[in-house]
Automatic annotation (TrEMBL):
<dbReference type="Pfam" id="PF05920">
    <property type="entry name" value="Homeobox_KN"/>
</dbReference>
<dbReference type="GO" id="GO:0003677">
    <property type="term" value="F:DNA binding"/>
</dbReference>
<feature type="compositionally biased region" description="Polar residues">
    <location>
        <begin position="295"/>
        <end position="314"/>
    </location>
</feature>
<dbReference type="GO" id="GO:0005634">
    <property type="term" value="C:nucleus"/>
</dbReference>
<feature type="DNA-binding region" description="Homeobox">
    <location>
        <begin position="127"/>
        <end position="189"/>
    </location>
</feature>
<dbReference type="InterPro" id="IPR001356">
    <property type="entry name" value="HD"/>
</dbReference>
<keyword id="KW-0371">Homeobox</keyword>
<feature type="region of interest" description="Disordered">
    <location>
        <begin position="218"/>
        <end position="241"/>
    </location>
</feature>
<feature type="compositionally biased region" description="Low complexity">
    <location>
        <begin position="218"/>
        <end position="233"/>
    </location>
</feature>
<dbReference type="InterPro" id="IPR005542">
    <property type="entry name" value="PBX_PBC_dom"/>
</dbReference>
<keyword id="KW-0539">Nucleus</keyword>
<feature type="domain" description="Homeobox">
    <location>
        <begin position="125"/>
        <end position="188"/>
    </location>
</feature>
<dbReference type="InterPro" id="IPR017970">
    <property type="entry name" value="Homeobox_CS"/>
</dbReference>
<keyword id="KW-0805">Transcription regulation</keyword>
<keyword id="KW-0804">Transcription</keyword>
<protein>
    <submittedName>
        <fullName>Uncharacterized protein</fullName>
    </submittedName>
</protein>
<feature type="region of interest" description="Disordered">
    <location>
        <begin position="295"/>
        <end position="326"/>
    </location>
</feature>
Amino acid sequence: MRLDNMLLAEGVSGPEKGGGSAAAAAAAAASGGSSDNSIEHSDYRAKLTQIRQIYHTELEKYEQACNEFTTHVMNLLREQSRTRPISPKEIERMVGIIHRKFSSIQMQLKQSTCEAVMILRSRFLDARRKRRNFSKQATEILNEYFYSHLSNPYPSEEAKEELAKKCSITVSQVSNWFGNKRIRYKKNIGKFQEEANLYAAKTAVTAAHAVAAAVQNNQTNSPTTPNSGSSGSFNLPNSGDMFMNMQSLNGDSYQGSQVGANVQSQVDTLRHVINQTGGYSDALGGGSLYSPHNLNANGGWQDATTPSSVTSPTEGPGSVHSDTSN
DNA sequence: GATCATGATTCCGA
DNA sequence: TCGGAATCATGATC
């Protein structure tokens, strides 16, 4: 029954018209539905049609053989009935045996056809074989998210869905991408530095605006806010202190508020820009402009299992930022 | 065709 | 179940 269903689903058995179209549609869906696969899909359909033809030919042959053999046995029994009495029940039993034998052969045929289809599918539709690079836009969106959430590059389910929608890929592809990105970034931070610079610079203006707005907002709400001497402008030469100020802003004045949450992610980017402007030297960086400050001593991401808004990304063991104000 | 980049899969541990 | 790590398989570039 399962074999029948599968063959039906694959378009091997069932009505001839449109045979394999469902499978071809599945193929299109599996490979992202891009039109550049149409040649391969037609190839797939051709092979499927070939399997279908062989299956039907063999099936017909078996049915014919079954009928012929049944007739032959019936004739033999008829001849034997001249010498000994043969009951209709015996004839029925013999026919039953023959049909069972042939149906088991048919089952084998179905099984091997299924196998052939599975092999065909794996060969043509295996995602690994059909790997396609994401579009430039998709990669940019993913990278922007990654580098702007560097302190905690673990998007929530909602964020993954949002990214998937934006990039026209699946949620699992987003998960794969972040999995690969995290591990490759961690393995070779130096290699990704340039990329990080690019995306950090891209979002720097936004970050600056967000932080400036936050600072202004903070000043409006509490005029006696400490560490707010620069009035919203960035004091790059002393960026270590400035970052502490931002930490203070984020942690003290805006903790728990929506603004604070937004600023937090922007801060990651901004910190990077600060590093790039030469105002921040990293003792652990080994000459690296973009220091792996978000990785803890064990090589894991800081706060990997806790929301980034709860703990400061630069706090904790191994942080070289924590006491620069002294 | 060698090499690198990258998306997907698998295995394993927490 | 999720994420890290290793690996595979394919695409892109030279």
